[in-house]
Design brief:
It contains nine helices and 16 strands. It is an alpha/beta fold. The longest helix has 14 residues.
Length: 314
């Protein structure tokens, strides 16, 4: 049996994404086959397609599959999951791409720890946005170790990781300062729980804008927009700084700087799914497109000023 996929045939623009067929993954001990019903387009997919992150995928050559996120149904009883069960998950793509695993496909063979049950009635497209972005936000906040009442600046707060981080940090009792991506985002971010929302600001001016609100600086920064070194000045002496992408800025004044290395965590993902189902976690889906239109999805995802995820429907 074969499945439909979309491959990166060579590095380049969206036009290098092409429809193809590949053999269905075979059942294997210790793995769970999932029929994918929704797969999210993430910025890292665009960077990978363009060849910008080849250093993170040694030995990988086109053609290959993209895709980190999925929501779907289990094909057969396996590893604690049952046939027909709805699941959501994250493929740790940089580690498995060379094995031909990605979610721009009809079926994926996953390790059980990549997956979490998805309740009946939960929207598949919305749930598909959780895997990479919500886990990155949660694991970044773990690294920051915020206590109730502490202040955190979230850059890229209008994006996928940033929006989840604002809501999760606020729910944990942190005082969130959110950097908006545009004038239409301020009300949205306040609705997620941000106590203060800064308008879009040049990186070189951001530290001063933060210190105008908090003269000693904030306790922590989650740099989801990867603005880097200029934002370190917004952190108080001895504070913490987490970036979602390398290279990390240089620490100063006793500030601890880390890069989050997102790992799939089925148990943690199950909690995020529960938060989404209960209305405690918010996501935005801008559009859904058939998998065959992945190139168009990449074009739309690259457009500036857009909000919400584009989800592919295999």
């Amino acid at each position: 049996m074969t499945m439909r996929v979309v491959e990166v045939r060579e590095y380049g623009g969206p036009e290098v994404l092409r429809k193809a067929e590949r053999p269905d993954p075979r059942p294997a001990e210790g793995r769970v086959r999932v029929r994918i019903h929704a797969a999210t387009v993430n910025p890292v997919d665009l960077w990978t397609r363009a060849g910008s992150v080849q250093a993170l995928t040694p030995g990988l050559t086109p053609p290959f599959l993209l895709g980190w996120d999925l929501a779907g149904t289990v094909l057969e009883d396996a590893s604690g999951f049952t046939a027909g069960q709805r699941v959501v998950g994250m493929v740790p793509w940089f580690g498995v791409a060379k094995d031909g695993i990605g979610t721009y496909a009809e079926i994926v063979s996953a390790l059980p720890g990549w997956l979490a049950p998805l309740p009946d009635g939960a929207d598949l497209a919305a749930a598909a946005t959780l895997g990479l972005n919500a886990q990155t936000a949660a694991q970044s906040l773990d690294l920051l170790g915020l206590g109730a009442g502490q202040t955190v600046l979230v850059t890229g707060a209008s994006g996928g990781v940033g929006g989840f981080a604002v809501e999760l940090a606020a729910a944990a009792g942190a005082h969130v300062v959110a950097l908006a991506g545009g004038p239409d985002d301020e009300a949205y971010l306040a609705g997620l729980g941000a106590k203060q929302v800064l308008p879009r600001t040049a990186p070189e001016s951001l530290a001063a804008a933060v210190r105008a609100l908090h003269s000693a600086g904030v306790d922590a920064v989650l740099d989801a927009a990867t603005l880097g070194q200029p934002v370190v000045g917004a952190v108080a002496d001895g504070g913490r700084f987490v970036s979602t992408s390398a290279p990390a800025p240089e620490g100063e004044r006793g500030i601890r700087v880390q890069i989050v290395q997102t790992e799939p965590d089925g148990a943690r993902l199950a909690g995020l799914v529960a938060d989404l189902a209960a209305g405690r976690l918010t996501t935005r889906v801008r559009a859904t497109l058939p998998l065959a239109q992945a190139a168009e999805a990449h074009r739309r995802a690259a457009a500036s000023g857009q909000r919400g995820k584009i989800v592919l429907l295999p």
